[in-house]
Amino acid sequence: MYKKMKLSITAMLLSSSLMAIEIHSGAEAVNIAGKQRMYTQRLLKDYAMVGMNNTYDNPSADLKKTIDDFSDHLSSLEAYAKDGATKEALKKVDALWAKTKASLEAKPDLASVGKLQEDLDALLKASDEATKSFAKASGEKKGEVVNIAGRQRMLSQRMASLYMLKVWGVSDPKFKAKLTDTMTLFKDSLKKLEDSPLTNDEIQGLLKKVKRSFMFFEMMNRSSSKFVPTLIYKKSNEMLENMDKVTQLYVKRDAK
After folding, report:
1. Any idea of the CA torsion for 38, 42, 45, 49, to the nearest 10 degrees?
2. Domain that holds residue 128
3. With 50 as the cut, is the pLDDT of residue 182 above it?
4. What does the alpha-carbon distance between residue 148 and residue 117 come to, in Å, rounded to a whole number?
5. Considering all CA atoms of the chain, what is the largest pairwise distance in Å, rounded to the nearest integer?
6. How many whole angstroms separate alpha carbon 36 and alpha carbon 127?
7. pLDDT tens digits for range 114-170
8. Residue 222: CB partners within 8 Å, gap ≥ 6?
9. Backbone angles phi, psi at 103, to 5 degrees
10. DSSP string spanning 17-40?
11. Do 101 and 63 contact (CB within 8 A), yes or no?
12. Residue in 24, 33, 250 with CA at minimum distance from that of residue 142
């Protein structure tokens, strides 16, 4: 029963594009734009899982749905964008997404995943710029904290995707540096959220859960052993779900 409930929570989190998304505020726009960053890394994680023929939590179906989610969210953001800088940022995302989408829809291949990772990192960078542009344009005090909390969702998936590629057999000379940078940013950002005046008791409780899950990745980083993909997938989803709840709570907070 617990497992089914966990799966349904993940499905709800990643199926928001099944309903029309109408953005009503700057904070909502930052939240949705920030989720695009997370999708770039979740797509890579799913792609690797499918490539390894690992069916835990049905990554093949999640890969297809996340592709649709990214496209639908991009359309919603383009409809909401008001200033020129944000519109230009979204144009870059659109151009990168067009070619990356085709690669993701092809059969996962170990020989091709290196180039796909580069393309998704470029898409991540463009999506991050778009998110920052929305945060700046919002003019809301909570816009920046929503940006930071939303970025934690992406970092949870980035840690997982980096490990997943390593398990699959991808040799990346920059793996250690990428992982160290990701984990450092995650830990520093977690501290900023804990110290934010917009962080109430409910959010603090969720952040404690995230910190406990993050300890798993810290332990993996210190170990020379290979960890099973299913465990990596599960732990990263726990972090994603809790950080998404945190981000949503910040969106709902009144600016003070």
Report:
1. 170
2. 24-252
3. yes
4. 23
5. 51
6. 6
7. 999 999 999 999 999 999 999 999 887 788 999 999 999 999 999 999 999 999 999
8. none
9. -65, -40
10. GGS-----SHHHHHHHHHHHHHHH
11. no
12. 250
Distances, alpha carbon 9 to alpha carbons 14, 226, 240, 244, 245, in Å: 9, 28, 11, 11, 11
Residue 152 within a domain: yes
Asked whether residue 109 is assigned to any structural domain, the reply reads: yes
The pLDDT of residue 254 is: 59
Task: Provide the phi-psi class of 37: left if phi over 0, else alpha when psi is between -120 and 50, else beta.
Answer: alpha
Q: Are 128 and 13 in contact (CB under 8 A)?
A: no
Taking all residues of the chain, what is their mean pLDDT, rounded to a whole number?
Answer: 91
Q: Which pLDDT does position 152 carry in this prediction?
A: 98
The answer to whether the CB of 94 falls within 8 A of the CB of 75 is no
DSSP E strands in the chain: the ranges are: none
Type of residue found at 142: K
The pLDDT score that the predictor gives to residue 17 is 44
User: Does residue 180 lie in a domain region?
Assistant: yes
Q: In the predicted model, is pLDDT for residue 6 greater than 90?
A: no
Number of folded domains that form the chain: 1
Contact 27/142 with Cβ under 8 angstroms? yes
In which residue are the tokens 């349904």 written? Answer: 8
178 domain-assigned: yes
Say if residue 8 is exposed, middle or buried (CB neighbours under 10 Å; 0-12, 13-18, 19+). Answer: exposed
| Tens of pLDDT, residues 203-216 | 999 999 999 999 99
Distance of alpha carbon 28 from its chain centroid, rounded? 16
What digits encode the pLDDT tens for the residues 154-180?
999 999 999 999 999 998 899 989 999
